[in-house]
Design brief:
Largest sheet: none
Helix content: over 70%
Distance between the termini: 79 Å
Strand content: under 5%
Radius of gyration: 20 Å
Order of helices and strands: HHHHHHHHHHH
């Protein structure tokens, strides 16, 4: 009598975690459904039981990162109070979301616009950036931030610093505690009006 080996039961979320890792390792364009099937240890037909295909998996993955980022803009500390405090909250929480959703945000930052899903993701990223730039502009207008730094440039520099975390941060590595605090201190010590 042959032993029955229990198969791993996959949900969309568990399949997505494997998919994101493979996309980050091989690139979206360099990943086939066969690669995903092999990495997940399930058949391609099992994947198709959960999703229509590779692009749907990409949309779910980058959508998870984007939804987490946009949720920040609706948090009470992001919508009430002085503009500079709201901006500081958004910057801190953006770094925290990046750290909490590292593989998903990494994938989001690597999309280039080659598919409809990638174009959608880039458009939503631009929308998020514009909303943060408006907040930064409001803080400058209120005299809370330096007026000699152009708001769009300051926004790009802020997000350049935050987004670079995906390149070097490794969870649990020595010296990586307090990343969100460091981002806020570096950014706002230089941006606050004196």
């Amino acid at each position: 009598m042959a032993e029955n080996t229990p198969r791993t039961a996959y949900t969309v979320d568990s399949l997505l975690a494997v998919t994101v890792q493979v996309f980050n390792d091989r690139g979206y364009d360099g990943t086939s459904m066969e690669d995903l099937s092999r990495a997940a240890g399930i058949s391609k037909s099992s994947i198709y039981h959960h999703v229509r295909g590779k692009e749907e998996l990409l949309r779910l993955a980058v959508g998870r990162a984007l939804d987490a980022l946009f949720a920040i803009l609706e948090e009470p500390a992001a919508v009430t109070g002085p503009a500079v405090d709201r901006l500081e909250h958004v910057v801190r929480r953006t770094a925290e979301v990046l750290l909490a959703e590292l593989p998903y945000v990494t994938l989001l930052l690597r999309v280039r616009g080659n598919t409809a899903t990638e174009q959608w993701a880039l458009e939503r990223r631009r929308d998020f950036d514009h909303r943060v730039a408006e907040l930064l502009r409001a803080a400058v207008t209120a005299g809370e931030l330096r007026a000699d730094v152009e708001p769009r440039m300051a926004t790009r520099l802020l997000f350049g610093m935050i987004n670079s975390i995906v390149e070097w941060y490794r969870p649990g590595a020595k010296g990586t505690d307090g990343v969100a605090d460091a981002v806020v201190h570096l950014a706002f010590d230089g941006l606050r009006a004196r």
